[in-house]
Design a protein that fits this description.
The chain has 171 residues and is mainly alpha-helical. It is 74% helix and 0% strand.
């Protein structure tokens, strides 16, 4: 294996690791949002670890979680896009097919991807509806902007999952 291919393989694997970390962070946010659904205004709100930030209201915590949700989705989308670019840049088709089998939570079949989509995409809507009161269709369409990064990540994961089958004929 030449140096360029070795670098591309390493970059592919590191991109998928970053994608997976961002998805795990999104799942932690999902768990936190579900926890907050059971905690009322009268209870102590959780603190941000390592920063000792205290939230004064449930709405400020929810807005912070929404920003973190959008950020983690954007990181996941960026990283999986880079993984796809690196995989397509590997000239040796047999090597690329072998590398495409690298295990990642986002690169999965439609069944597990559907479970991830339910867990990740529903949280954006839950957060938006708990923070804002939507009265029109245009305001409700804001959800699509919030969910776009995770949706695109999972869509790209499906493409990477089927990439091997599409390229086996070339090998």
């Amino acid at each position: 294996m030449d140096q360029i291919s070795e670098i591309l393989v390493t970059n592919y694997c590191e991109s998928l690791k970053l994608t997976q970390r961002a998805i795990f962070f999104g799942l932690v946010l999902a768990g936190t949002v579900h926890y907050l659904a059971f905690v009322g205004e009268g209870h102590d709100l959780p603190k941000l670890p390592f920063f000792s930030v205290e939230f004064t209201s449930l709405v400020t915590l929810q807005v912070t979680l929404l920003v973190l949700y959008i950020g983690s989705g954007s990181v996941a989308w960026f990283a999986i896009s880079k993984a796809f670019q690196n995989l397509n840049s590997i000239k040796n088709t047999e090597l690329a097919i072998a590398v495409s089998r690298y295990p990642c939570l986002a690169v999965t079949n439609i069944w597990f991807g559907g479970l991830l989509a339910g867990a990740l995409l529903g949280i954006g809507a839950t957060l938006l509806m708990s923070i804002f009161e939507f009265s029109s269709v245009y305001q409700k369409s804001l959800y699509f902007l919030v969910a776009l990064p995770f949706w695109a990540t999972l869509r790209m994961g499906g493409i990477l999952h089927s990439w091997e089958k599409r390229n086996e004929t070339k090998a």
